[in-house]
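Researcher: I'm preparing a figure for a lab meeting and need a structural model of a single chain. I don't have an experimental structure, so a prediction will have to do for now. The sequence is pasted below. Please return the structure as tokens so I can convert it later.
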Amino acid sequence: MQVPLQIAFEHMPPSEAIEARIRREAAELEKFYERMTAMRVVVGKAQHRHHKGDTYHARIHITVPGAADIVVSRDPSEDGAHEDFNVAVSDAFAAARRQLEDIVRVRRDAARHG
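Model: Understood. Here is the structure written out token by token.
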């Protein structure tokens, strides 16, 4: 990436474990699609306590040249699936990868038919 990975925390203190997990996920995405120019990841806790405990949200914004920016937001689900930050981060990065795969597919088809 041309711009270093940006990681921000909302409504929670910074965590080395969460940051390390995000860096690993971002590195995997960059291996898959090295033309990304910038990525910002925001992870945070919901501001209020749910009856099931704290929940996490994750947002990813990726800049890709020649394509619309990829924006993914994974907010806490009603079933408590995002009570673990790993699930919120995994869901968000999986969605970002699917969007990158779509970009690759469109560009490959355009090159084939272009």
